[in-house]
Backbone:
């Protein structure tokens, strides 16, 4: 028995929706409480929905009883400060798992390539139920920054780069892609990240917002990309040697499970 998936994501694994009029919304993300949490780059997160409504970001499978990334509990003090962000997470009508605002400090393209990771949203998910995907809604205006997607972590030929202007909205199967953000700004980038369960509600939402599986992407100089690949392998080898010096054998790359 297969999972219930979104037809809109079947071809490419992602869609870009119509931009949201972000200027019409209050900057609620500035009022939230943030906590450290490992992701791609120097990051903090402000949880809006978590396993039990606590101010934490851990995977639902790391709690008792463990469950997949579905049916998150709203963090009441946070959503009291950010009702507009909560409404945006609820807008598709799909089940919400983890929901949080990310704060990402500026980084370099080589940093983003090194930090590419896959999510593990569907751990413990039952076949015959909806596949969990993620929505990325950019809250700040970062037109020179981009979401990087690769189906193969080490093959830049598989790379797609999607721009992140204010109000940009992207839905991605983040278990299908290695992904990270290259944030080229001078101030932190903020975005709302929501885990949604695939099904007719999410499909209808994507259709109503003209989800495009073939949006315009960003081109980069091939020599620039090649240099980042060299730096990626240099950093991996440096890390391997550091672990080896401690008597630790590095395993092949695995998802960060964030």
Residues:
């Amino acid at each position: 028995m297969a999972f219930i998936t979104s037809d809109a994501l079947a071809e490419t694994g992602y869609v870009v929706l119509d931009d949201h009029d972000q200027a019409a919304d209050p900057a609620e993300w500035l009022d939230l409480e943030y906590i450290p949490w490992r992701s791609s780059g120097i990051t903090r997160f402000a949880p809006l929905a978590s396993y039990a409504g606590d101010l934490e970001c851990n995977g639902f499978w790391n709690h008792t009883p463990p469950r997949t990334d579905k049916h998150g509990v709203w963090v009441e003090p946070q959503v009291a400060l950010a009702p507009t962000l909560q409404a945006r997470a609820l807008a598709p009508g799909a089940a919400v798992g983890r929901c949080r605002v990310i704060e990402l400090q500026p980084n370099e393209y080589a940093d983003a390539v090194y930090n590419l990771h896959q999510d593990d949203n569907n751990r413990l998910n039952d076949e015959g139920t909806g596949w969990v995907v993620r929505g990325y809604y950019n809250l700040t205006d970062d037109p020179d920054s981009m979401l990087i997607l690769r189906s193969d972590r080490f093959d830049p030929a598989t790379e797609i780069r999607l721009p992140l202007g204010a109000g940009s909205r992207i839905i991605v199967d983040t278990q299908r892609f290695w992904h990270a953000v290259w944030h080229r700004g001078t101030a932190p980038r903020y975005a709302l990240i929501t885990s949604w369960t695939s099904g007719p509600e999410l499909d209808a939402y994507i259709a109503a917002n003209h989800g495009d599986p073939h949006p315009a992407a960003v081109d980069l100089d091939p020599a620039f990309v090649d240099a980042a690949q060299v730096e990626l392998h240099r950093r991996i080898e440096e890390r391997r040697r550091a672990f080896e010096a401690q008597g630790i054998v590095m395993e092949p790359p695995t998802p960060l499970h964030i």
